[in-house]
Specification:
- The protein is mostly beta strands and 181 residues long.
- It has two domains: 62 residues; 103 residues, Sandwich (Immunoglobulin-like).
- The chain is 3% helix and 46% strand.
- It has one helix and 15 strands; from the N terminus they run ββαβββββββββββββ.
- The strands form four sheets. A five-stranded mixed sheet has the order 6-15-14-9-12, with no helix packed on it.
- A hairpin with a 5-residue loop joins β1 and β2.
């Protein structure tokens, strides 16, 4: 006995794809359908069976894939002191409506002043005005080393499927050195 499947997938762009494949019953038992697009809203499937002599009529069924939500990053301005170093993880928080683990982060420092601070990953200073990729495992060794001027900082998180929006926050505070007296 074999089965013929026809699948029409409707994505958010309204594009339509058709697949028609005759498969054995043994292959069908081992088959799974996995939605990899976080934006796919519905797939329309049709199937029919053949007993070796004739095909049955097509039967349509619908599969609605769950929608994945992007993580949401929250960060507030940080009141710093001159040349202060702070763990990156203490500067923001992340929530994911699907309870997905955060797989990676990106950081950005957009203050081009030579006296501004910088991100460091594993003790290695990172450049200005560039996305800095950090895995979940590297987050613990990621810091921001402030300078002597305020900084505009950015962070976003990825749950393995979608990126959050970039979240801007600022490194502000008292940057005048205090004379010893």
């Amino acid at each position: 006995m074999s089965l013929s499947l026809s699948q029409t997938m409707r994505e958010s762009s309204s594009a339509t794809f058709d697949i028609d494949d005759g498969i054995s019953l043994a292959r069908l038992r081992a088959a799974t359908r996995c939605s990899t697009s976080p934006r796919r809203s519905q797939a329309i499937h049709k199937n029919r069976a053949n007993d070796g002599f004739a095909w049955s009529a097509w039967k349509e069924f619908h599969v609605s894939a769950p929608v994945d939500h992007a993580p949401v990053v929250t960060a507030s301005d940080f009141n710093a002191t001159l040349n202060q170093t702070v763990a990156a993880a203490s500067l923001f928080s992340v929530a994911d409506a699907d309870n997905d683990s955060i797989a990676k982060y990106q950081f950005w420092e957009s203050t081009a002043n030579a006296s501004s601070g910088h991100w460091s990953v594993g003790g290695v200073a990172q450049g200005t005005n560039t996305a800095i990729d950090v895995t979940a495992a590297q987050l613990a060794s990621t810091t921001f080393q402030g300078g002597s001027v305020p900084d505009a900082l950015w962070v976003r998180a990825n749950d393995g499927i979608q990126w959050s929006q970039w979240q801007e926050f600022h490194w502000i505070g008292s940057f005048k050195s205090k004379a010893l007296g």
